[in-house]
Design brief:
Number of domains: 1
Largest sheet: 6 strands, antiparallel
Helix content: 25-40%
Number of helices: 4
Shape: globular
């Protein structure tokens, strides 16, 4: 019998924090978590403006650093949240490419992949945090009990 989804998410957390290659965590998400019906059945469309702002800002930053036009804006395509695991994931379009993102709200950390502008056969991977991302007008930041701003 395979790992439970809880154990898979815990393993993803460990990879996200400790893996030397950022592709390891995103590939694990795509191969093990995104294909698990018990995880996907718990997902709903992402409607948290703060988390959406983080994901889009990350895609725009990676795109610009990978040789894309700095003026290109990311557009959400399919962004979902599994509230039980506080796990946001999905895709957004930027320029002519799609970014794949996976973000754990509890850790305020995620990983993203986006094709390189110079060589579309190469994927740029990045580990990221939402800390310090400018929130949309009217958004209210969330605080945990320690006072850490999300």
């Amino acid at each position: 019998m395979g790992l439970t989804i809880k154990k898979k998410v815990e393993h993803f957390q460990n990879l996200l924090v400790n893996a030397e290659s950022f592709s390891d965590s995103l590939n694990y998400f795509l191969d093990e978590i995104a294909t698990d019906d018990s995880f996907m059945d718990g997902c709903q469309p992402l409607n948290n403006d703060n988390v959406i702002a983080v994901l889009l800002a990350v895609a725009e930053s990676i795109h610009a650093n990978a040789g894309g036009n700095e003026k290109d804006k990311a557009e959400a395509q399919v962004l979902q949240m599994n509230k039980k695991y506080k796990f946001a994931h999905g895709t957004c379009r930027i320029g002519k490419n799609m970014a794949i993102l996976a973000y754990l709200r509890e850790l305020d950390m995620g990983v993203a992949g986006l094709p390189s502008q110079a060589d579309p056969s190469m994927v740029i991977f990045a580990r990221f945090t939402g800390h310090g991302v400018e929130m949309p007008a009217g958004a209210i930041p969330a605080f945990d009990r320690s006072g850490y701003k999300h």
